Amino acid sequence: MLNAQAEFAASSRFREYEQKLETLFRKNLEDEERDWFLRLTDTEWKPLLICAVLHNLEGMLPSLAEAQGIRLQPLTQQYLQQQENRCKLLWLRLQEALFELMTAFEKAGIQVVCLKGPVLAERIYAVPTTRISTDLDFLIAPEQFPQASACLSDLGYRISGTAPQNLPQGAQKSLHELGFERPKSVPVELHFNAHEGFGTPLPALDVMQRAIPYQTVGSLKTLIPAPEDEFLFLAVHAAGHRVARLSWLLDLRFFLTRHPSLDLEMVVRRAHQYRVTSALQFALTQCQQRLQFALPPYLAQFLPGSPLRGWALEKLALNLPKDTPRRPLHHLGTTLFAACLHDTFPTGFRFLSRQATDALHRRLTPKNSPT
Question: Do 3 and 68 belong together in one domain?
């Protein structure tokens, strides 16, 4: 199944089905669009279902199809019922892991802010279990990383992949998060900056100082970002990942719907303060165009930005294949995309220079030599 997903994501047909999936999330389908879905057989639904899985949207398809007046074929309906049950089981796993981790952090005196995941889903989605999350994200103060890392180690977690086991002094300048994993458990990411990569970070301390208390549906007491910080983070996160998943655009859409009094002027001021206006503009433009979502007037006026940058970002985001190995051309495309997200030409140029220097260093350094 995973091979089939990767193969389809790299195919020329992927964007075609991705656009069809986008139409389901618009308010009302045109008769011609609805007829296209009604004519699909179980076999013809398969690529659309793979597309939904890659976008973490399979849990929402049954209710969407019903709302749009689309009758699903029997096998497709059976598959989606299985996916819905899987989503509910994953939700329970996330809740259990969240309780275990928050309890451990509290005992260790570590203050964390919950980012994304189930804590966000239960606040902005009518049926939270349909918004699939594959990990848990926590924002921590950089100086508390050693304690948080030790806390996770005591629970059996280890730093993922080939990342260093001890965060070196000053590593926050080049990293904003580290992943942890444990067999048969939900992966965890510790963020010591809310985001990094567009010339300046979204500082953890700023976000944490403005964080507000929240009690989950499971009566777990935690902290969440202030609404303006959270919306900006969601937009920057989506943009930084080339809006590779429609679920990230839906987060923005439903967040705005659930927060009608959001201080949009404050959001834009902080985007300017942290130099992430290009990232915010790109994410909002994609939300407006691909979901046909009517943005609040203030954000709509903020959108235009640089036409050339917007064109380049859209071409790179939509034409780079998703979920494929980092081949040289793919890596070059993602690097150029990140450079275009910088608010100014000098910071974008410096980013490209650093990437080129790092690539040259990796090529010239023997694989077995110490770093």
Answer: yes
- Domain closes at, from 224, 252, 283: 224
Residue 265: how many other CB atoms lie within 10 Å: 11
CB burial of residue 323 (10 Å; 0-12, 13-18, 19+): middle
Q: How far apart are CA 53 and CA 117, in angstroms?
A: 17
Max avg pLDDT among 48-52, 162-166, 255-259: 255-259
Q: What angle do CA 316, 16, 35 make, to 5 degrees?
A: 150
Residue 262 is predicted with a pLDDT of 96
Residue 238 lies in a domain: no
DSSP label at 71? P
Distance, CA of 290 to CA of 194 (rounded, Å): 26
pLDDT for 187 beyond 90: yes
Give the total number of structural domains in the chain.
Answer: 2
pLDDT at 196: 62
What digits encode the pLDDT tens for the residues 340-364?
888 888 888 887 887 788 777 777 7
User: What sections of the chain are H helices per DSSP?
Assistant: 2-9, 14-24, 31-38, 42-54, 61-67, 74-107, 117-124, 145-154, 204-209, 227-240, 246-258, 264-273, 277-290, 297-302, 307-319, 328-340, 345-364
Sequential DSSP letters for 132-190: --SSEEEEE-GGGHHHHHHHHHHTT-EE-TT--SSPPTTGGGT-SEEEEE-TTS--EEE
Which single residue is written with the structure tokens 């996770």? 152
Same domain for 194 and 100: yes
pLDDT tens by residue, 62-79: 888 888 888 888 888 888
Angle at CA of residue 334, ends 136 and 369, nearest 5° = 80
Q: How far apart are the C-alpha atoms of 282 and 62, rounded to whole Å?
A: 30
Q: Which domain holds residue 145?
A: 92-224
Q: Tokens for 206, please give them.
A: 């700023």
DSSP state at residue 199: S
The string over 333-363, giving b where at least 16 C-beta atoms fall within 10 Å of a residue's C-beta and e elsewhere, is: bbbbbbbbbbbeeebbeebeeebeeeeeeee
Q: Per-residue pLDDT averaged across 248-276, rounded?
A: 95
In a domain, 30, yes or no: yes
Helix 227-240 and helix 264-273, axial crossing angle in degrees, nearest 10? 50
- Supply the pTM of this predicted model: 0.88
